[in-house]
Amino acid sequence: MLSPFALFKRPHRAHKSGHQDIAQVSLEREGRDEIRRITAAVEKVPWSVSTLQILWTAGPVTLIGAWGGYLLGYGKAPSMENYVFFISYTVITGVAGIIANLVYHLTRGRHYERTANKISHIIDELPELILTTRNLIVESLEGEARRREAAAMLLRKQDLSPQGVELAALELLDDHDSARIIAQIDVYRRVGLHARIQDMIALYRDTIDPQLSELNEVAPEAIALLRDRFAGHAPDLHHGVARDDNFIERVMAAIEEDNELLMTLQDVEEMLILAFELISGREIPMLTFEYRGRWQLARTLDALEEARSRYRISQATGLSRLKALTVYLAEQSGTLVEDAAQGLRAEALAQRSREAMDALAEQIHQLAVRSRQGEKGVRGELRDRANILTNALKLFRSVHEAYEQVGRNHVNLLRMSERWDRMAEAESDDATRLQVGPGGRGLRIREKRIELDDAAKAQVCKHLFRHLRDTRLPHRRIEPQATATQDHVADVEAAKRLAIEIALALEPHVQLSRPEVQRAIYASNAAYFGQLEPNLSASAKAALGTAMVKEVNEDLSRTAESLALALVRHYRVALPPEAIDFLKNTYGAREGTLNMLSNYDIRMHRNISLLTHRPPLVGSPSRHWYRALVRARRALN
Question: Which of 208, 279, 337, 402 could cross-link 329 (Cys pair, CB 3.0–4.6 Å)?
Answer without folding.
Answer: 337
